[in-house]
């Protein structure tokens, strides 16, 4: 089945060598990864997700995904392989393993973390069943026995009709974390990780009327405000929003992510944490109303159509770069939380879980909740730990215990781009 690209177009043109529009999910398993069990699990898992078993094709200036019957690659290396290349059998998804680490790499335009979590649920179910010779419950897991509904295949954005006209909002430029601290972007991003007990962090959230996403957004806002008490620019968090609910497409596999803008201005700075959280939650509630989410979808549709109206590859790349530049100036930092993983009975075999992704803003925090732990992965474009240190100070002040993992260089899978070969 051919799939015409639409939501995938902007991510494709945004992607650059050494800054690919990709995600890497790194799971540290309880034991060494068994290569044979992983090969079995990947093969059967990918049968359940045929819309991810595709090869990028081009016809003039149009792109589409065609069926790719070649096996999805598993490399025995923590570095993985280039996606959409001979090394990946021209797939946009691949797996790798190294010692006790199991890794999923995927083009972020193919899916988002919500879609990737479904793949992980299925993979862990089959892998752990084979690896440990156990009968795990399949409740909540998509298995190869399922009939795959059309709603998983179809792009809800291409189908969307009567989208609202996007509204333009004049907002002051937010505080820029590079400029504020005189930090330069480095060639590679650095990731610092903070791990805390899920039970303790959720108890703290409930005591303050917060969800994990709003709480992390607030703690980072407070940390930045403490560093720059005299800053004139507002501190603005971008909290990622799953657009599936507004699109009435809960099963869609595409990358469907918008954002809610949370501004930490002068009135909030002098309030107590519960009142601050209440204000952030009201902002989220307002901006996740269906009409406003669909307005964001409409804006992306307009940008995509503008890009597709250009016939020059160079102009398309330039337009995508401009969109990315605008996104990088929209907020101070980005917070992303898919929700509790719910990987089923196989989850107990996962010791660590990290989600790394392409980032436009100076700092992005990816929140994961797996096997009784919250992990906050600080993905930042500079090595300096000043912001993660300030965030830790907020955790300390709130009495939240945590483990800290020092910085690692973020490595994402490169993507071979069609125009790079010409």
Describe this structure in words.
With 422 residues, the chain is an alpha+beta fold. 35% of the residues lie in helices and 23% in strands. The protein has 14 helices and 15 strands. The chain has helices spanning 9-14, 35-48, 113-131, 150-153, 156-159, 177-181, 198-207, 212-227, 244-247, 266-269, 273-287, 290-309, 313-328, 386-397, and strands spanning 3-4, 22-29, 54-59, 62-67, 74-75, 93-98, 101-107, 190-197, 235-242, 257-264, 333-337, 350-357, 363-370, 373-380, 403-409. The strands form 3 sheets. A 7-stranded mixed beta sheet has the order 10-9-11-13-14-8-15. It has a 5-stranded mixed beta sheet with strand order 5-6-7-2-12, covered by helices on one side. It has a 3-stranded antiparallel beta sheet with strand order 1-4-3, with no helix packed on it. The longest helix is centred in the last third of the chain and has 20 residues, at 290-309. The chain starts with a strand and ends in a 13-residue tail after the last strand. The model has no long low-confidence stretch (mean pLDDT 95).
Entry keywords:
422 residues; alpha+beta; seven-stranded mixed β-sheet; five-stranded mixed β-sheet; 14 helices; 15 strands; 35% helix
């Amino acid at each position: 089945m051919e799939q015409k690209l639409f939501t995938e177009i902007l991510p494709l043109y945004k992607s650059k060598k050494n800054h690919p529009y990709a995600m890497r999910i790194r799971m540290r398993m309880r034991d060494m990864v068994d290569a044979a069990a992983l090969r079995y699990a990947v093969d059967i898992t990918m049968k359940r997700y045929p819309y991810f078993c595709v090869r990028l094709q081009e016809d003039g200036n149009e792109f589409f995904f065609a069926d790719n019957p070649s096996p999805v690659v598993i490399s025995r290396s923590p570095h993985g392989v280039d996606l959409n290349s001979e090394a990946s059998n021209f797939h946009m998804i691949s797996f790798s393993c190294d010692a006790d680490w199991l890794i999923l790499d995927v083009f972020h335009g193919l899916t988002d973390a919500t879609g990737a979590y479904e793949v992980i649920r299925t993979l862990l179910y089959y892998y752990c069943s084979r690896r440990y010779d156990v009968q795990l419950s399949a409740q909540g897991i998509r298995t190869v026995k399922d009939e795959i509904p059309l709603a998983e295949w179809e792009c809800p954005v291409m189908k969307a009709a009567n989208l609202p006209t996007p509204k333009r909002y004049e907002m002051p430029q937010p505080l820029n974390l590079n400029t504020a601290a005189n930090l330069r972007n480095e060639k590679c991003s650095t990731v610092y990780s903070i791990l805390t007990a899920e039970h303790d962090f959720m108890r703290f959230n409930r005591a303050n009327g917060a969800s994990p996403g709003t709480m992390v957004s607030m703690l980072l806002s407070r940390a930045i405000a403490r560093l720059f008490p005299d800053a004139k620019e507002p501190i603005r968090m971008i909290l990622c929003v799953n657009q599936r609910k507004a699109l009435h497409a809960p099963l869609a596999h595409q990358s469907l992510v918008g954002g809610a803008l949370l501004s930490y201005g002068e009135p909030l700075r002098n309030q107590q944490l519960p009142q601050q959280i209440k204000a952030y939650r009201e902002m989220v509630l307002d901006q996740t109303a269906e009409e406003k989410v669909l307005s964001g979808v409409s804006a992306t549709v307009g940008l995509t159509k503008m890009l597709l109206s250009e016939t020059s590859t160079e102009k398309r790349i330039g337009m995508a770069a401009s969109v990315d530049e605008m996104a990088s100036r929209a907020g101070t930092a980005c917070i992303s939380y898919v929700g509790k993983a719910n990987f089923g009975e196989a989850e107990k075999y996962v010791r660590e879980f990290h989600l790394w992704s392409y980032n436009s803003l100076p700092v992005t925090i990816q929140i994961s909740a797996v096997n009784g732990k919250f992990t906050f992965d600080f993905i930042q474009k500079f090595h300096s730990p000043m912001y993660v240190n300030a965030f830790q100070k907020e955790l300390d002040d709130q009495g939240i215990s945590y483990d800290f993992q020092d910085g690692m260089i973020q490595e994402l899978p490169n993507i071979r781009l069609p125009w790079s070969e010409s």
